[in-house]
Design goal:
By secondary structure, the protein is mainly β. It has 12 helices and 48 strands.
C-alpha cells in the first residue's frame, strides 16, 4: 500500500491547509492505534487514534522541520506545537489529525531520521479550549484586553425593566424562547401559596420579586458559540433533536453577578454645559489636565434597593482609572478627585462614569462636575438607574468550556470523532453504532491463535451530580438511607474484583416542588395541588430554620416545557418597589422533557425518580435512555473480550470505523481498539462480543 503524509506549511501554521508532503521510508512500519477507550470504562466518551513512525532526514524534510537538529539556529521548528496533517493510503484520505515532532536522531554528526507522532483532532480539543470559560465565548484576548468579537449571547440581551422581564416569564415569542426566566427562587425565604404569611407568593405584599429570579439560556446557543469561536462544527443530529432544543442552563446565582452600565444623563441640560466639556450625546466629560489645574467630580447615589453591593467605576478613554466598592445602603455618595498629570503639555481626559452591580440594584444619581479651585459647578441630574441591558455573557456560569462539553457528553453518553480538520461527529453511542457497517473479516483472521478473556469490569458504578446545598435536594439526600442525591444512581454487581467507577457531571440537579393551595382545608375533599412548579435555590442557614440564597451552586440544567396557564390560581409579581402585577401564566421548567406524562421521552435524572410535576415515577431516565444498552452489553454474562491477529487488505483498512461490527466465522464483535500497520496490513484487534 502506498502511504503519503501531508502537513501544514510549518512556516505559516495559521494559513489554510496547503498540503506539503513529508518524505517517508519505503519500508517504514506505520502503526495506527484507534480506540473508543477501554469498553469497561463506561465513562469514556471520546474516540481517539494515534500513530507514530520515523521519517528520513532528507533535504526536503530537513527544510520542513527547519533543521531542528541544529542547536545554533534561532528560528527553529517549534516541536511543542502540533500542526494539521493528513494521512493517505493509495490516494484515499485515511486519517485527519495533527502531527508533532518528537525527536531527531543524529548519526555520525549527520541527521538520520525524525520521530513523529500523529494524533486525532479530538485529542486536541482540550488544547484548543484551554482554560476558557463559557461566559467568555464571545470574546478574544487581544494583548492583555478582552475584545468582544461575536454576538452569540448578546443577541439575547434585553433592556432590564418590568415589561421585558415579564416577557421572559410568560411570552412565548420573546427572544424566540432562547432566554427565559423560570420560577426558581434565589431568595432568603420559602415560596408558598395560600399561606397568608411572608412566604405567600399569591399576595401583592409578599409577591415574587424580580431580584429573586434569574434567567436561563438555551444550551444549544453555547454549542453554537463554541463552534464560532474555535472554527469547528458539530454534527447536528443530537443537537437538533427535540429533546436537546428544550435543554436550558441556569445563569449565575451569586452576588458577584455584576452588570456594568454607563451613567446616562437624560434630563434637560443647562446652557453652560458645553463650556465645562460635557457631551450630552455621548455622556463623556472632556477636559485638559495641566500642571496646576485640578478637577473634581461628585456623584450622589441614592440606592432604592438595600444590602446589594455595587461598584462605582470611572474610565478615561475607556480605561478604568478609579473604582470604589460599596456594600449597599441608602443615600450613599462619594467625592473623588482627578489630579493634574506631571506632564509638560496639557493632557486631554475623556471621562465616563459607570455603575457595576447585580441587575436587581436600582438607584438614582446626581453628577456634579467642576474645578477644585473654582467655585463654578455644573449639576447634571438623573433620577433613573433602570435603563440598562441584561447581559447574558455577564451572567453565564464560569464553567470551563471543556468541562461543560464533557459534562453534557456524560449525561447523554455521547461520542465525538473528527470528520475533517474542523468538523466533528457528535452523537449518542447508540446512534454511533447504528451508523456502522457489518464487515466479515473471517478470511483475513489468523484463527490458529485467538485469546478469549473475561471483561475487566467494576463492582460498583456510581452516576453522580454535584452535591447540592439547596434545601430540598439536601434534605432528600440526608433522609436517603444510602446517602444518594436526587437524580443520582448507584449500581453494585456481585463480582470478585472490588473496583469502583464514578461517573460525575459538573452540574447540580434541581429537585423541583409542585405547590399546593394551603388555604384549602383538608376537610373540603378538594385536591389542593396547583399547576405551579417551582425550584428552590436556597439553603438553610446555621440555625437550621432560616433560608438564604445558595450562592455556591454549580450550574443546573433543566427542560423548558412551554407556557403553563394558571389563571385560576395566579401569582403576584413585583418589580423593584413598584405596584404588584398578576401572573396568569409562566414558563414551566422541570427535569422531564414534556408536561404530559405519556409524552415524556427523557428525564434529567440518572435513575428512576419521583417527578414532582407528574406526581409519579419517571422510568425514562438518562441511564435507561443513553447508558443501559452499553452497560448491559458490558455486564452481560455472555460478554467476552477477544484478541486476535489479522492481515487486512487496503479496502478494509481504508473503510474500517470504530462503530463497525466485525464478523469472524459465526460470531459478531464490536471494536474496542485496534493497531494496524497500514503498510503491511498486519493488525492486532481487541474486540468484544456484540450481545445485541
Amino acid at each position: 500500500m502506498k502511504i503519503k503524509l501531508y502537513i501544514d506549511n510549518i512556516s505559516s501554521p495559521n494559513l489554510p491547509f496547503n498540503g506539503e508532503q513529508i518524505d517517508l521510508f519505503e519500508d517504514e512500519a506505520v502503526n495506527v492505534v484507534n480506540k473508543i477507550n477501554d469498553i469497561e470504562k463506561l465513562s469514556s466518551i471520546f474516540s481517539d487514534f494515534s500513530l507514530s513512525f520515523t521519517v528520513p532526514a532528507t533535504p526536503s524534510n530537513n527544510r520542513k522541520f527547519k533543521h531542528y537538529y541544529d542547536l545554533d539556529i534561532d528560528n527553529t521548528f517549534d516541536a511543542n506545537v502540533r500542526v494539521n496533517a493528513i494521512l493517505e493510503i493509495d490516494t484515499f484520505t485515511f486519517k485527519i489529525g495533527q502531527l508533532q515532532l518528537e525527536s531527531v536522531e543524529i548519526k555520525d554528526s549527520v541527521p538520520d531520521n525524525y520521530k513523529i507522532g500523529f494524533y486525532s483532532k479530538v485529542s486536541q480539543l482540550s488544547d484548543l479550549f484551554g482554560n476558557d470559560t463559557i461566559d467568555l465565548l464571545e470574546f478574544d484576548l487581544v494583548g492583555s484586553s478582552l475584545v468582544k468579537n461575536r454576538s452569540n449571547f448578546s443577541q439575547f440581551d434585553f433592556p432590564y425593566n418590568q415589561t421585558n422581564l415579564l416577557k421572559t416569564i410568560n411570552d412565548n415569542s420573546y427572544l424566540d424562547n432562547n432566554l427565559i426566566t423560570p420560577l426558581i427562587a434565589y431568595a432568603n425565604r420559602d415560596w408558598n401559596y395560600g399561606t397568608a404569611d411572608a412566604t405567600d407568593i399569591s399576595l401583592g405584599p409578599t409577591a415574587i420579586l424580580n431580584k429573586e429570579l434569574k434567567s436561563a439560556l438555551k444550551v444549544i446557543n453555547i454549542f453554537n458559540a463554541i463552534e464560532e469561536k474555535y472554527g469547528i462544527t458539530f454534527s447536528r443530529q443530537i443537537l437538533d433533536s427535540r429533546m436537546f432544543q428544550k435543554l436550558f442552563i441556569a445563569l449565575k446565582t451569586s452576588d458577584d453577578n455584576f452588570t456594568e452600565r454607563q451613567l446616562i444623563v437624560n434630563d434637560a441640560l443647562p446652557n453652560n454645559l458645553t463650556s465645562v466639556g460635557y457631551n450630552y450625546a455621548t455622556n463623556v466629560w472632556t477636559f485638559q489636565d495641566t500642571d496646576h489645574l485640578w478637577h473634581n467630580y461628585k456623584i450622589d447615589i441614592t440606592t432604592l434597593t438595600v444590602n446589594i453591593p455595587y461598584r462605582l467605576i470611572i474610565k478615561d478613554n475607556g480605561n478604568t482609572i478609579k473604582t470604589i466598592d460599596f456594600d449597599g445602603g441608602d443615600g450613599t455618595s462619594t467625592l473623588l478627585y482627578i489630579g493634574a498629570l506631571d506632564s509638560p503639555t496639557p493632557t486631554t481626559r475623556n471621562l465616563t462614569f459607570h455603575i457595576s452591580s447585580p441587575p436587581a440594584f436600582i438607584f438614582s444619581f446626581i453628577l456634579r462636575l467642576g474645578y477644585r479651585d473654582d467655585p463654578f459647578t455644573i449639576t447634571l441630574p438623573n433620577d433613573s438607574g433602570e435603563g440598562f441591558n441584561y447581559s447574558v455573557s455577564d451572567n453565564l456560569p464560569k464553567i470551563k468550556v471543556l468541562d461543560f462539553l464533557q459534562g453534557v457528553m456524560k449525561l447523554f453518553k455521547l461520542v465525538i470523532q473528527p470528520i475533517t480538520n474542523n468538523d466533528f461527529y457528535l452523537n449518542t453511542i447508540d446512534n454511533f453504532y447504528l451508523g456502522g457497517k457489518i464487515i466479515d473479516i473471517t478470511a483475513f483472521v489468523d484463527q490458529s491463535s485467538i485469546l478469549v478473556k473475561r471483561p475487566d469490569i467494576f463492582s460498583d458504578v456510581d452516576f453522580k451530580f454535584e452535591a447540592t446545598e439547596n434545601v430540598l435536594g439536601k434534605k432528600f439526600k440526608d433522609v436517603n438511607l444510602n446517602n444518594i442525591g436526587y437524580g443520582d444512581l448507584s449500581s453494585t454487581k456481585k463480582i470478585s474484583d472490588k473496583k469502583e467507577l464514578v461517573i460525575k457531571v459538573p452540574f447540580e440537579n434541581m429537585l423541583f416542588e409542585r405547590l399546593f393551595d394551603a388555604s384549602i382545608p383538608e376537610s373540603d375533599g378538594i385536591d389542593p395541588t396547583l399547576n405551579i412548579l417551582i425550584g428552590q435555590a436556597s439553603k438553610l442557614t446555621s440555625d437550621g430554620i432560616t433560608l438564604e440564597e445558595n450562592k455556591t451552586m454549580k450550574p443546573i440544567l433543566f427542560f423548558f416545557n412551554g407556557i403553563q396557564d394558571i389563571t385560576d390560581n395566579p401569582l403576584s409579581f413585583k418589580f423593584n418597589n413598584g405596584t404588584p402585577t398578576t401572573l396568569n401564566s409562566y414558563k414551566l421548567v422541570s427535569n422531564t422533557d414534556n408536561s404530559v406524562f405519556n409524552d415524556v421521552t427523557t428525564s434529567l435524572n440518572f435513575g428512576q425518580e419521583f417527578d414532582p410535576w407528574h406526581q409519579r415515577e419517571v422510568s425514562k431516565s438518562l441511564f435507561f435512555n443513553f447508558w443501559k444498552g452499553w452497560f448491559d452489553t458490558i455486564y452481560n454474562i455472555k460478554q467476552r473480550k477477544v484478541e486476535c491477529k489479522a492481515v487486512l487488505p487496503s479496502r478494509i483498512i481504508e473503510d474500517i470505523k470504530l462503530n463497525d461490527r466485525l464478523v469472524i466465522v459465526d460470531q459478531r464483535f464490536k471494536i474496542n481498539d485496534y493497531k494496524i500497520n497500514i503498510v503491511t496490513g498486519d493488525a492486532d484487534l481487541n474486540l468484544f462480543k456484540d450481545i445485541y
